[in-house]
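Jg10376 protein
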Amino acid sequence: LARVRVGGARDLGAAEDSAMHLDTLQFSDWARFWVQVIGELRMGVKLKKVNYSRTPIEYELTPYEILMDDIRSRRYTLRKVDGAIPQSVKKDAHAMILEFIRSRPPLRKASERKLPPRRREVTPREQLLASIQVGRQLRPTPYSRRLCEYSVLSTYSLLQNESSK
């Protein structure tokens, strides 16, 4: 592991810890070095144990959480808001809704409405039984014709053989 080759052999020896020499290594050097390390690990090289503690994870607050934090810590003073909607606005909205409803054509009574008859859906069981009842027509095969032709020809050839004797 002490040597990394680029063109010729370069001895990293004591300069291995130097950041300057590490920066000068090219991608191919690092790739070759990585292959060597993995090869040695496969051969059974033991790595020394290192005490490692995770750094705490930092979370970023959403804008809503930032605002709520500011309100809780009383960095801002909130003004009172009159939440009451004026009566005229309420009446106007109510009147607009009623006007829209009245402008629509009136609905007929349910007893006057006639629906088409409900379609009967065929269950998979019924489909299977129906397909069994219908059955399949057998397709004629050319084999049966050949068999007939063969028997006729063989009979004809037998008759010729007997007549030639």
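thats it. Residues 142-164 form the longest helix (23 residues). The longest strand covers residues 3-6. bye
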